[in-house]
Structures are given as C-alpha cells and as structure tokens.
Amino acid sequence: MLVSVNDHSRNLALDNLGLIGAADHNRYFHTLNTGWQVVLTGKDYGLAQWQTDSQKDKHSQSDTPDNAARLQLYTNDTAADKTISSLTGTFQNLDRYSLGASFILPPYTSVVVAFILN
To answer: Three-state SS for 19?
Structure first.
C-alpha cells in the first residue's frame, strides 16, 4: 500500500523499474487524475500502459474517485482479533462487497475499506 501525506499527481513515481521486485493485485485510486497512475523516469503511464511496458501489476485495477474519498485504513497491532464496528454506517471492501456494520481484523494485519454513512 502506498500512502502519502502530500497530494501528489501520481500513485507511484520511480526513477528505476528495478526498484520494484514484484507488484501485483494493487488498487490504484487517485482523486485528482484518474488517467495517470505511474511515472517512471519522467514518463507518465496509465495503468494499462504501465502493465504492458513494465510487466508489473498484471492483476491490479484502477478505481474511480467516488470511492477513494471514503477509504479508511484500519490496523490491528495486537495478538488478538480486533472487531471494527460502526453505529452510523457500513463498510465495503475494495471490491465493493458489503462487510456490514462490523468486521473482524485478524492479529497483525491491516485493511483499507470504504465507509458508507447510513
């Protein structure tokens, strides 16, 4: 997962493709520019062109900004299951399947979900 405190214009920026050993099954979200997800040595790539040219992210997908604005990161840094629940809404996974008003986060894991206000 790539997280930035700055509002960059790309999801991923690299000077050298060799810096990535493996990249796949990612979800690229961008609230400002959905057309360009990656920049490599100054060249902009949409996800499809990035997948073709780099042979990375074969199963990765790009998503629309309407869902990105509601994404939240939950972490569990304990040795026990952690229940995440809400009284005011429900959660969806990144494939937009409902998790209901609560879900269990296994030990030492994290998840990004969309919060849907009732």
So the answer is: helix
